[in-house]
Design brief:
This protein has 154 residues and is an alpha+beta fold. 23% of the residues lie in helices and 35% in strands.
Length: 154
């Protein structure tokens, strides 16, 4: 929002029940290892040979990498064009299936709740469930959290 751009999306643009899908990022082995070396250097994220002998049977992406990719897809899909005021937090994150080299991820966003903030009439709060899906339509990660957006009318 600090870019000076005209905002395309406001709180009113996130009605309860709205479902949108977006993204499409394919992870390579190099992507997985590069992220994990810096932020989550567990053997099953950084060493293909060690990963073969793990419970996963091969290299997998860090769950935090998956979260970061989901955030990037949200930014590209709508947040960079939204009157976003940040987030007060995430209630839960679940990593449901391993993400492997060659997987292509996308996000399905479901609006669960939308309400104005009583203390700040120009701000609305949106609670979403973000489902990260692989190329087979399998849910690999799910998280629920909040976003704050300016209202068109406050």
């Amino acid at each position: 929002m600090s870019t000076g751009k005209t905002c395309r999306y406001y709180w009113e643009d996130f009605p309860v029940g709205q479902v949108t899908e977006f993204g499409g990022i394919t992870l390579s082995e190099e992507d997985i290892v590069r992220f994990a070396r810096e932020f989550d250097p567990q053997p099953f994220h950084i060493d293909a040979e060690a990963a073969k002998h793990s419970m996963f049977g091969g290299l997998i992406a860090s769950g935090w990498h998956t979260c970061g990719l989901a955030m990037r897809m949200m930014c590209d899909a709508y947040l960079l064009e939204a009157a976003s005021l940040g987030s007060p937090g995430v209630d839960n994150i679940r990593w449901l299936k391993p993400v492997r080299p060659g997987d292509t991820l996308r996000v399905r966003c479901v609006v669960l709740e939308a309400r104005p903030l009583e203390s700040k009439p120009h701000v609305g709060l949106v609670r979403n469930r973000w489902e990260v899906l692989n190329q087979h339509g399998e849910e690999v990660m799910q998280m629920e959290g909040y976003g704050m957006f300016k209202r068109r009318k406050g």
